[in-house]
Amino acid sequence: MFFLILLQTFLLEFKIGDFIFQDCDCGAICDAIEEVTVSKKGYRFSHVAIIVKDSLGNLVALESNIGGVKEVALNDFLYRYLDTNGKPTVLIGRLKDEYQKLIPASVSFLKSKLNIPYDDAFLLENDAYYCSELLYDAFKFANEDKPLFSLFPMNFKTKKSNQFHKEFEAYYQELGMPIPQGKLGLNPGSMSREKIFKFYKISSFGY
Question: Which residues of 176-195 are buried (b: 16+ CB within 10 A; e: fewer)?
């Protein structure tokens, strides 16, 4: 009981609009994403979500994952993957003060996209969303159609060999489409390197 009360107290320290950058241990595809992208300070991020309130006023994580755009209980999201010490494998990114004004309109946009399918092809503007694409569009909308996050030519090649990662070769072969090497996009790692955040380790929030 004490744990639950303590947990609820610390949950109040999170704010609507906080980004949750997550190092996922979801298997080979997450490892592949982390191997071909670069995150802040050597972290290995393969997923990102944002904190909002649900219809009952509870803080939840809004994400685009395999099941599409969904709201997930915050505890469930944070404790989805743990490090060897049993701590969530996340870093919290809080927008700097000058960008906080964009959060309400971004959240409205995000709420309007609930249940839209997951973009497993990682392509922009195809009526589906991958995790970082969803947040890119939300804050672009809130910023009067000016992007807050940068797009880059996507890379699916390993840093060491400069060859396509075998996992992505198999992944896109199963989708029946060519690897979209060089097409514009973004990823949790590139978002984490933007200079618009203050970062907090999860221990700063009592976890």
Answer: eeebbeeeebbbbbbbbebe
pLDDT value, residue 204:
64
Instruction: Locate the domains of the chain by residue range.
Output: 2-205
Fold for 2-205, please state it. Answer: endopeptidase fold (from Nostoc punctiforme) (3.90.1720)
For 104-125, what is the mean pLDDT?
A: 97
Give the separation between CA 14 and CA 52, rounded to whole angstroms. 10
If pLDDT is split at 50, 70 and 90, which confidence band does 8 have? very low
- CB of 177 closer than 8 Å to CB of 141: no
Q: Residue 119 pairs with which residues in a beta bridge?
A: none
Contact indicator for 155, 36 with CB cutoff of 8 Å:
yes
Quote the CA–CA distance of 56 and 158 in Å, as a whole number.
44
